[in-house]
Amino acid sequence: MFQQLASEVNARFAAAETFFSLTRGFAGDNAATAKGLAFVQVYAVYEFTVCSVVRTAIDSIKAHNHRMQDLIPPLMALALDAELNSLRDVGDRRVWQNRLALFEKAFSKDRFDIPSNTGPPHDGSHFKYSQLQIIFRVFGIKRLPVRRRAHIGRINEVVGHRNQIAHGAETAQDIGRRYTLAEISHIASQMRSVCLLLIDVFESYCADRTLHRR
Question: Fewer CB atoms inside 10 A, N or C side of the chain?
Answer without folding.
Answer: C
